What we know:
Layout: H1 2-26, H2 38-48, H3 53-66, H4 70-75, H5 78-85, H6 92-107, H7 116-120, H8 127-137, H9 147-156, H10 166-179, H11 185-198, H12 217-221, E1 237-248, E2 251-257, E3 267-268, E4 271-273, H13 280-292, E5 296-308, E6 312-323, E7 335-342, H14 353-372
Parallel strand pairs: 1-6
Antiparallel strand pairs: 1-2, 1-4, 2-3, 2-7, 5-6
Amino acid sequence: MMKDVEYASSLKKSVRKLLLSWFADNRRDLPWRNGYEPYQVWISEIMGQQTQMDRVVLYFKRWMELFPDIAAVATAPEQQLLKAWEGLGYYSRVKNIQRTAGLVLQNHGGQIPEDLNQLLALPGIGPYTAAAILSIAYNKPYPVLDANVERVFARVLDLDQPLKQVSIRRQLQAVAADFLPRGKARLFNQALMEFGALVCRPKSPDCSCCPLVAHCRALQQGTIDRRPVPVQREKKIEIVMACGIILHENRVYIQQRLPDDVWGSLWEFPGGRLKAGETPEQAACREVFEETEFSVSRLRPLETVVHHYTKYRVTLHGFTCRLRHSGTMPVLHAAVQYCWIPLSGLSDFSFPAGHRQLLHRLDSQMWRENSEK
Ligand code: SF4
């Protein structure tokens, strides 16, 4: 990497100039770029993790209408925050946002701190987010290394070692810091990220329109598709689950998950993993009973949905079912509260993605059945 560091140093002036000029002409009109208000930059960075930009913009605008400032986030009911986050996944992020908002109000006079250590002490803010807030909101000289930026450096410098190696990351961090033009961290970091997202894309980079074409070693060496060096992906763990959607007198049973559980505080249909030798239908029956002490019958498959998470591939079999008895009060074993809710009221609750998909299916099935009567 030492040779690469020297090469990087030799072209930093030129790359700075070219990227800043490219950014001036090509920057996207993103709502938090209008004033770089620290609260807005922070929310945009948290939303942007693992999410496509057009979705981030959609969620961001809605979020700012509901929670225009830190005080609004700190005092909002958790369910309202979860609902605004529904569909973005990784729900611990929204809980950390609220905890951080409370701490910022309590300890920092409602202002997102400008100090690295103070930022890192806040829930949900790691080194990347802290550097992004400091540089983009406060224009302080902190480099950001997201996947887009890493890819640009890996290609321009033709780095032939995996970027996850600690020593390589440290050197890359130093190179990125060295590239920052004095007083322009905000612009340069965004230029790098935007350039990686729009031009030096993971697949099919737009080299014919690239302002760095004369400097790009990977282009010269023909190694673009191997830069960054691909890391061996771990095989995802397969999880198969089943759940029961209990229908009773035009209402549906839902329950709220325990707060510290996966998808804590979201609503769901009772269910869980299949045991060895069980069919999905048997598992749905058993899980409903174990979680609520409801006995159910007349199970009908509604839909099977598959969801991918970082480490898991989850297959969820959903069944509609009916109570065997007249009592509608559950004994809760895996939830904090429950509701019997008409279908039309379900949109007020926040669900994990798989359960939300089952809801859409249920909605369209009910609509079809009613229109056929
Ligand atoms: S020439 Fe192609 S690979 Fe190299 S920096 Fe430009 S877009 Fe990326």
